[in-house]
Amino acid sequence: MRQVASDTKSCRHALIDEARGQVVRGNKKKVPNTDTSAYCKARQRLSEASVRGLLRIFGNSLDHASPESWLWHQRRVLLTDGSTLLMPDTEKNQKEYPQPGTQKKGLVSRFSESLF
To answer: Is 56's pLDDT higher than 80?
Structure first.
């Protein structure tokens, strides 16, 4: 989750960040390895569904942990993220993530999804 939320999105940066966090939290027995090979291989094995599930769990736990002072007129406010997702225009991607009929084939697909 930290890697996805970071500015750089790099595996190496995520591992260095985690190692730094463990040292700050007092884990002095063994500083974590920052070699990215095993991390990147494990990350590639994650399915889209498992990442989506983790995002939902993480978002819900943040929501439930939010103090009442963050509510607007004693109500939760839901926002939808209008992020743009870029991916190669391959047959496999077209089958899995079809473009709307109003969009010309070959253009980048866009989607927006609420996580809650």
So the answer is: yes
